Give the backbone structure.
Amino acid sequence: MSVSSEPTATSAPTATSAPTATSERTAAPATVPPEPTATLEPTATLEPTATLEPTATLEPTATSAPAVSEAHTGERAIVLTEDLHARPASALAQAAAAFTSAVTLSYGSRSVDVRSVLSLMGLGATNGQTVTLLATGDDAAEALTALTAVLGG
């Protein structure tokens, strides 16, 4: 038995044809989008025809502020028993929220709304210094009494 050293030809894979349509499988017809039949062209352009000028100016008019009687305004000077830091400022703002009167706290040349914790802390008032509470409104007297108690006065 002899072994041949010549290479033998092997058959290359053959291409198979596309599957044919059978009764179970039918090819869907190709859909082509319709051609556009018309294009839209602008028929007019908008150009500014006029500019708007102010017809009247608003001037401040003299209106009378609602009169607040002296019975609805109060002021108290208080010597602080502790620094006006976060905790007492928060307690003061929470107590002031229970009243309808506008209340301000003054220290030195600055005055702030007592409902603002950050403004109160920004005053920098410390123990032993005098601050002034000013309340204006229907319940001003009650507000001053309650807020004075919160500040320890």
Q: What stands out?
A: The CA atoms of residues 41 and 47 lie 17 Å apart. The first strand starts at residue 73 and ends at 79. Residues 63-69 have pLDDT under 50 and may be disordered.
